[in-house]
């Protein structure tokens, strides 16, 4: 089976065929760096990280670009309020973004281009659109002439007459038509600005992605991604600009992740912005967050709740315990022939994992495959003559999947001698007070860590296996 991707443009799952065999160009709209990223930003960041990793696992060479919007109204407002400059604010939150995505186990994109480093490209992009008649200058601003692009609305499946409803015209805008959108904004006094043929100003939001996608990845992308809310107007505007410029489709596959609900309420900007990734990774293990995000299909709404996080934590514990047991047993088990039954189970479950991931990145079902393999592994671990080669096959498979999912912690550290001593004392006391459950728990923990207890005439001794 080959990879199928749901394409928002056609509203259907399509077989994935890259423009250049073996290579994938992927552009995902990144954050506006005026604040810490919130859980609404974490979802696309984690999901498209999975897409990239899975494409790589499938043998593709992936070029992955995520932009930073480092100048816009929000940054300018924040600068006015805080007394810092726009570049200072951008620098601070770009650093925080890198910290946060690293904490979430998200690999850095190949490039994170910034608007302010690409002003020349943006200005010449706009100039070309003006020359071709797709854009016009008006009072220091430049606007895109939407009615010149007949296909405007094709991604979000709306037509121009529908789009006229609900469009708010900002005070001070001098557009020919309400649905025209801004490419260049003339600077107000005191605002950060760059020179252009239309006077001092700065780029509109949509044009940056068209210019940077083209500069770093070419005229047509394999995959263009982002959150559901970016379909309109942002991606629709990107399509209009780029396709009028080049005459080529901007992207072959448009992928959008679904909304986040918080305690079953649709995430509002205020509520969603309240939960930052910065705070969240202090409170919840990052692997648990990834597991939680992956347990809902990316196109479905995701309900963010304490209960959901707890469930994810429980599920992840089962997987991590299974893996820890494997890792330990391998160090003590003898070599041997790979068990035929386990071999067959691994082959079958590996097929399931690929089938599910190939089906538009069905991570919840891929996690079911992980649980199935953990069950097989736990069953095998109960056999007295488990051998290292069979255990290695199981562990390698789980680690290969983990390269895509990123849900496992690094192997646990060995227990220090003083921790072992402390646990032995605690166990003796638990036995004295007939707290058998705790005593057993400690014995299991010590066994798992490879600590062997021996009763000797001189008292209890311990050694490492
Ligand atoms: Zn964009």
TrEMBL record:
Domain Cysteinyl-tRNA synthetase class Ia DALR: 352-416
EC number, as in UniProt: 6.1.1.16
Entry's localization field: Cytoplasm
GO MF terms, alphabetically ordered: cysteine-tRNA ligase activity
CDD domains registered for this protein in UniProt: CysRS_core
Enzyme class: ligase
Quaternary structure and partners: Monomer.
Protein family (similarity comment): Belongs to the class-I aminoacyl-tRNA synthetase family.
Protein name: Cysteine--tRNA ligase
């Amino acid at each position: 089976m080959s990879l199928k991707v749901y394409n928002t443009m056609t509203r259907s799952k399509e077989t994935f065929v890259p423009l250049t065999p073996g290579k994938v160009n992927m552009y995902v709209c990144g954050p506006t760096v005026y604040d810490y990223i919130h859980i609404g930003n974490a979802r696309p960041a984690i999901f498209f990280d999975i897409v990239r990793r899975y494409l790589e696992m499938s043998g593709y060479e992936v070029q992955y670009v995520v932009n930073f919007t480092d100048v816009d109204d929000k940054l300018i407002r924040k600068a006015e309020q805080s007394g810092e400059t726009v570049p200072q604010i951008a620098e601070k939150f770009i650093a925080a973004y890198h910290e946060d995505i690293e904490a979430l186990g998200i690999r850095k994109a190949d490039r994170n281009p910034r608007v302010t480093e690409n002003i020349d490209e943006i200005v010449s992009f706009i100039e070309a659109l003006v020359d071709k008649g797709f854009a016009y200058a008006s009072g220091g601003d430049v606007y895109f002439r939407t009615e010149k692009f007949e296909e405007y609305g094709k991604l979000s499946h709306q037509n121009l007459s529908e789009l006229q409803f609900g469009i708010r015209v900002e005070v001070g805008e001098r557009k020919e038509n309400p649905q025209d959108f801004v490419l260049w904004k003339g600077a107000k006094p005191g605002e950060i600005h760059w020179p252009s043929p239309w006077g001092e100003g700065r780029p509109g939001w949509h044009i940056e992605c068209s210019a940077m996608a083209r500069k770093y990845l070419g005229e047509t992308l394999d995959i263009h991604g982002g959150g559901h809310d970016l379909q309109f107007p942002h991606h629709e505007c990107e399509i209009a600009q780029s396709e009028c410029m080049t005459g080529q489709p901007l992207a072959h596959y448009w992928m959008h992740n679904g909304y986040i609900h918080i305690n079953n309420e649709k995430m509002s900007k205020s509520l969603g912005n309240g939960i930052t990734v910065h705070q969240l990774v202090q409170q919840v293990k990052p692997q648990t967050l990834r597991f939680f995000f992956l347990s809902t299909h990316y196109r479905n709404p995701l309900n963010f709740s304490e209960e959901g996080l707890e469930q994810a934590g429980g599920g992840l514990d089962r997987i991590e315990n299974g893996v820890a047991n494997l890792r330990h047993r391998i160090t003590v088990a003898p070599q041997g022939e790979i068990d035929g039954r386990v071999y067959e189970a691994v082959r079958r479950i590996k097929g399931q994992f690929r089938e599910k991931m190939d089906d538009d990145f069905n991570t919840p079902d891929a996690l079911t495959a992980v649980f199935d393999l953990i069950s097989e592994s736990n069953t095998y671990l109960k056999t007295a003559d488990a051998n290292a080669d069979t255990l290695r096959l199981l562990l390698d498979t789980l680690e290969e999947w983990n390269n895509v999912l990123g849900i496992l912690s690094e192997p646990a550290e060995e227990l220090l001698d003083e921790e072992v001593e402390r646990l032995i004392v605690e166990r003796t006391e638990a036995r004295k007070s007939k707290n058998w459950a705790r005593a057993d728990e400690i014995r299991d923990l010590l066994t798992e860590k490879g600590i062997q207890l021996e009763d000797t005439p001189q008292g209890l001794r311990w050694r490492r296996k």
